[in-house]
Amino acid sequence: MLDKFHEECGVVAIYGHPEASKLAYLSLYALQHRGQESAGISSSDGALISTHKAMGHVHDIFTNEVLKKLPGALAIGHTRYSTAGDTVERNAQPFSVHCNKGRIAVAHNGNITNAAELRAHLESRGSIFQASSDTEVILHLVAHSRERTMAGALRDALLQLDGAFSLVFLAEDRVIVARDPWGFRPLAMGQLEMSGGRPSYVFASETCAFDLLNAVYLNDVQPGEMVIVGPEGVTRERYAPEKPRAQCVFEHVYFSRPDSIVFGRSVQESREQMGKLLARQAPAPADIVVPVPDSGNAAALGYSEESGLPYRQALIRNHYVGRTFIEPSQAIRDFGVKLKLNPVRSLLEGRSVILVDDSIVRGTTSRKIVRMVRQAGAREVHMRISCPPTVSPCFYGVDTPNKSELIAANSTTEEIRRFIEADSLSYLSLDNLSRSVADDRGEYCYACYTGDYPTDFISIEQLVRAGKKAGC
Ligand code: AMP
User: Fold this and answer.
1) Is 273 in the pocket of ligand 1 (CB under 6 A)?
2) 9 is catalytic
3) Could you give all domains of the chain from N- to C-terminal order, each with its CATH number?
4) What is the pLDDT of residue 82?
């Protein structure tokens, strides 16, 4: 069964640089926060496409030896996180095939909401799939297309897709990138310093990758736009009619790095604004403002500035916690959170604390952190969340659990406050969230906070997951 509901990913593409795979590697390093389960790079020397992908973090996978086997001036890369069921190497990207249109590799960020239907149709016509990821569907659509050119076949394929996709393709002598017509997931275009007089281009999920490469951010690939970079230069074309924009607001709330420009706006600026508006909307009698690092840092800064209360880093994060660790056989209470966070008692003792985090999903993390802060001597703990209650799963590329596991889908704010054992709890309102990202024209998707999905097509399987499991 195609079970590809949550897939958080980062993508990159490099055109026209002699060390393309090295630059793709560095970009993936900068995009590691978008997925830590597997990573891969495909490169092309103009004729042959080479791919290396594996489970794990970027720095573990790509050694000098590996990168030497990825030659050429063109490359695409991918870093992926997905849920347990799909934790297998065959789902790692890029996917690469040799089909009737030539050699092609693809990497994808987002979720194709009609992938199950497309796959069933393709299988009935003889396609054989190797992985359960919906990205493979795109390659089969390209192979089946009657169009003769790669760009034509891609256009044909993209027009059959529903849902969220920011895609990077590598053909033998060109890089092609595209965004879905709603613009759910980001994809930015940059220019690298000239190499031998010819411009080199880079595309990435977030602009923090450009900074590392000394690339200049030019603009975003537009929703419904396809950009082809080949020997003839850059061609930009609208492959699909315009749809109402639905840029993922969660990129600004949590997912993207604060040093990135996403959808043309600074993520840091959005988060500080969320904190400021939260301070106006939900003040509390407190002594200090404490972020839950790193997700609450920028919003806490905004809250502190607006409220005039001092910002104190009273929770210290251990940045070196790996994926596996040895746990004592005698269970230590809340071991997982303690491994990651430790309170600074001297800052917390006897104080009334405003604790700022970006979101509450299941509620279990917040509960442990509130407990930790109280045990370190805080007199009162007031929890402030820089987005509205998360009430609906995402079908467009963010990892959210079933509705039944989303605490805010099944409890009132007062019930959640009691569960996390806080003295008070407030969420940023939807209006204030929209203000924080300067969404004057209604161009963002807020489905995880409203249940209002911008695309028509949500498969029965998905609706079951969104609704029935929660008993509604
Ligand atoms: P929970 O215990 O489920 O309430 O977890 C809440 C924490 O998970 C918050 O500190 C968030 O920063 C973080 N978080 C929220 N959404 C996601 C996501 N899609 N992927 C990973 N972490 C997340």
Assistant:
1) no
2) yes
3) 10-246 (3.60.20.10), 268-320+333-444 (3.40.50.2020)
4) 67
